[in-house]
Design brief:
The protein has about 130 residues and is α+β, with helices and mostly antiparallel strands. Helix content is about 20%, strand content about 45%. The chain is built from two helices and seven strands. It has helices at about 5-15, 80-95, and strands at about 20-25, 40-50, 60-75, 95-100, 100-105, 105-115, 115-130. Strands 1, 2, 3, 4, 5, 6 and 7 form a seven-stranded mixed β-sheet that branches. A hairpin with a 2-residue loop joins strand 6 and strand 7. The termini are close together. The mean pLDDT is about 95.
Length: about 130
């Protein structure tokens, strides 16, 4: 699976399972509506580590990464809406296997005021194995 296919699979899963707010994807024009919550999906690829030995085509590599979702909610409305959205985002990926991608548990971090939004970040580490 290429990194392009990995990105496509992650975005497709999110599109199919998340409907609470609009979603900003990387390198796609997006205009947020003031005081209306939205999320931003980003995929950060990590290391590619050999986890087996063998000849060409038989070496299994583990590709790691993090699915990161920034939840932006309106300022001065408290944290409940943002936390609810973050919980919903986490549930889309937490402990799932899809398209040869395995996701671990999610963590939610309070980032606080960023520009004109109150932000929580949802991080889900994942891996996929591939032979080369």
């Amino acid at each position: 699976m290429s990194y392009k296919a990995e990105q496509k699979a992650i975005e497709a899963r999110f599109q199919a399972n998340y409907t609470l707010t609009s979603v900003k994807y990387d390198n796609v024009d997006f205009k947020p509506v003031p005081d209306t919550a939205y999320v931003e999906l980003q995929v950060f690829t990590g290391d590619q580590i050999p986890i087996s030995t063998g000849g060409p085509g038989d070496i299994l590599y583990r590709n790691t990464g993090i699915i990161s979702i920034n939840v932006r909610s309106a300022l001065n409305e408290g944290t409940q809406n943002g936390k609810n959205i973050a919980d919903t985002c986490a549930a889309v990926f937490r402990g799932t296997n899809f398209s040869n991608i395995t996701c671990y548990g999610a963590s939610i971090t309070r980032l606080g005021k960023v520009d004109e939004w109150f932000v929580h970040n949802v991080s889900i580490p994942y891996f996929r194995d591939e032979a080369f």
